[in-house]
Amino acid sequence: MKIRDLKLYPTMVGRRHQLIIKIETDEGIHGWGESGLSGRELAVMGALRHYRELIIGRNPFDIGAIWQDLYRSQYFEGGRVLTAAIAAIDIALHDIKGKALGVPVHQLLGGKHRDWVPLFATTGAPMGPKLIEDAELLISEGWNVIRTWMHAPGEQRENGDPVYEPWESIGPTAHWLNKLREAVGDRAVLGIDYHHRLSVAEAASFCQKLGRDTLDFLEEPIRDETPEAYEALRRMTHVPFAIGEEFSSKWQFLPYIERGITNFARIDVCNVGGLTEAMKVAGWAEAHYIDLMPHNPLGPICSAVTAHLAAAVPNFAWMEIRQSPTEQLGFYDERLFPVQPVQQGPRLIVPTVPGLGVEFDEKAAEHPEFQPRAGRLLRRRDGSVTNS
Questions:
Q1: Quick one: angle between helices 41-55 and 80-101, nearest 10?
Q2: Are 69 and 255 in contact, with CB atoms under 8 Å apart?
Q3: What are the distances in angstroms from CA 232 to CA 211, 228, 266?
Q4: β-bridge pairing 217-219 and 241-243
Q5: Active site residues
Q6: How far is 265 from 173, CA to CA, in rounded Å?
Q7: Contact 156, 378 (CB under 8 A)
């Protein structure tokens, strides 16, 4: 069997673009993959066009060797754009291999530890009574791991850019999270995604305003380029950290795992370089008693491959899903994805069919020339940019 072609399908699904790829073989077996670098689709498409010439004619079973060729070829290694492209290819090759051998992908990774994947839900409710209402709704429907967003009042500048002032966010956010914990007690694991919008000082101040038992995890409070900054914050707070959704390789995870900076590994299979790289990170994390808590903000392909990863590792906490009683973003469109993993409330059933267990309707996804959307810029009132 040899790789015959690689096709790109940048498609608007719900509120977000998803960059889907298809790898075809000369034996008629195809595989689906997905890049996770949202908002940078054109860059990833360019990388994939480069890589297409390197994989045509290759044996799709040689997944590890192809990964090394793509990562280490052409002198300049790595980077988020390249590993997001490699991830899409790596996922599609696993899909092909599973289909060719007649086994689900998790069997290629050592077999499954679990029949279903525990999920966590997100509420985008503003800091206030609606936050507690959403949490009670989720708990009533069986969700026991709940993530929130931070306080963001919705102010805009004259040009339409949203205004975000970090110091004004942390007080109301901490206040309402304390009230949320008081309301739900021990009925739910609670966390917040601060989307790297804080500095070390701001994040420390936020944590100091929380009760001792308010949060079970704090996700991405600051940017991750400098592990030493996270180490400084680690010394100032007791709250467990969930970090890693932007990491593009095992090397980026290395200091966070080896130096005990993160408590949950927020690995994104569609960004980190696919299953080949994700399984290596999972092994390191297991050796340090760190559970995976995968980032999964996209659609059925990302969900399926993450479910296979979750099934195949022992050290697993919860997987993100963007479909719950408090979020309906349209990412799991059955018209575009007629075959996809089955979700049963806060559980995603591990696929048992050959390959990933996802199919994409190319006809339904036909579209005009891809038009990328301008990225959102968060600004402070003085006009300076702040982290989005």
A1: 50
A2: no
A3: 20, 6, 20
A4: parallel
A5: 195, 295
A6: 24
A7: no
Beta bridge partners of 11: 18
DSSP 371: -
Residue 363 lies in a domain: no
Same domain, 78 and 112: no
Do 171 and 236 belong to one domain? yes
Domain range enclosing 79: 3-105
Report the CATH number that the domain containing residue 69 is assigned in CATH. Answer: 3.30.390.10
Kindly state whether residue 150 falls inside one of the protein's structural domains: yes
Residues 174 and 303 in one domain: yes
The total of structural domains in the chain comes to: 2
Contact call for residues 117 and 310 (beta carbons, < 8 A): yes
Do 12 and 153 belong to one domain?
A: no
Q: Domain for residue 354, yes or no?
A: no
Tens-of-pLDDT digits for all 388 residues of the chain? 999 999 999 998 988 899 999 999 999 999 999 999 988 999 999 999 999 999 999 999 999 999 999 999 888 888 999 999 999 999 999 999 999 999 999 999 999 999 999 999 999 999 999 999 999 999 999 999 999 999 988 888 878 889 999 999 999 999 999 999 999 999 999 999 999 999 999 999 999 999 999 999 999 999 999 999 999 999 999 999 999 999 999 999 999 999 999 999 999 999 999 999 999 999 999 999 999 999 998 899 999 999 999 999 999 999 999 999 999 889 999 999 999 999 999 999 999 999 999 999 998 887 666 777 766 689 999 999 998 8
Is there a single domain that holds both residue 94 and residue 210? no
Which pair of structure tokens corresponds to residue 334?
Answer: 């059955």
Does any domain span residue 213? Answer: yes
Same-domain pairing of 204 and 193: yes
Per-residue DSSP letter, 32: E
**Of the candidates 117, 119, 94, 88, which has an alpha carbon nearest to the alpha carbon of residue 106?**
94
Whether residue 95 is found in the same domain as residue 125? no
Q: Are 260 and 247 in the same domain?
A: yes
